[in-house]
Amino acid sequence: MEVLACCLFDPGDVLLTPSPCYTRIFVNFNERFQVHVEDVILKNATDEGTVTFELTAAILENTIKEQMKRGKKVKGFFLVNPNNPLGEVYTSELVLQLMSVCHRYNLHFISDEAYAMSVYEPETKFQSVLSLHSKLIDPQKTHVIWAFRYKLAGMRIGALVTWNEDLLRVVKNTSMYTAVPAITQQTAALLLNDTVWLDEILLPTHQHRLYIAANKTREALNSIGIAVRPAQAGFFFWVDLRPFMMEINQSEELALFKLLMEHKVYITPGSEMRSLEYGWFRIVFSAKSEILNEGLRRITDTLK
After folding, report:
1. Could you point out which of 66, 179, 229, 259 has its C-alpha 20 to 30 Å from the C-alpha of 3?
2. Is 20 exposed, middle or buried (0-12, 13-18, 19+ CB in 10 A)?
3. Which CATH superfamily includes the segment(s) 197-303?
């Protein structure tokens, strides 16, 4: 992320990203290179009061217009797909619509596909931006980043794929400051070249374990009245704990968070992920079975 902040943006430029979100996006783009990251706020309450957190091309375009009215220079859009913390896999149709909006306003489209191999629902298919090359409106402003660390803990490797040769040249010239150690590169290359192991052992095992843990977690939470937003990927759920709050505000959300911490269970309050809909939390379920069971028990005991 920092490499893109350095190479594509000037200080004061605006990058948009949907929220709730992984908040390191804000730090990575702003801390050293002063890119202003602004929220594309997802809420969209229905007539029944359900918060859908739906992303649409119209929401993105309205946010761009709002920033422009404030005199801001919007230069890019950052999409995490599959989404963190929602666990949603965005369709290729939606991605192309978002790209069309970006093209209309001359924005860079950055697709973070770190969770691409963590799709656990059998009926859900993730389609990378890389597979849409023939449909891209502006390949020169389309960039894909990918991470290895979520599939094999400890392999902290990121990759950038871009059709922009000027960007690629600058990235190569500055790569000494962000280079992956040679021994790590060699190990990763050996693993990635073993396609039989990847396709027949690592990825199916990884996805099956996520599927089992997700179903167990969803059933346990539903049994005590916790609504879980539908998810298809990642290792987390976005859950609604508003029924367990006296009032719907940030103070009550943090009070519930502290109560859970007193029972020695940590789940992330939505406000820490820039959600304006207080009472939603992110629960990570990718733990060993005995640890997950204990965590779910503690949540149940806390909320009784």
Report:
1. 66
2. buried
3. Aspartate Aminotransferase, domain 1 (3.90.1150.10)
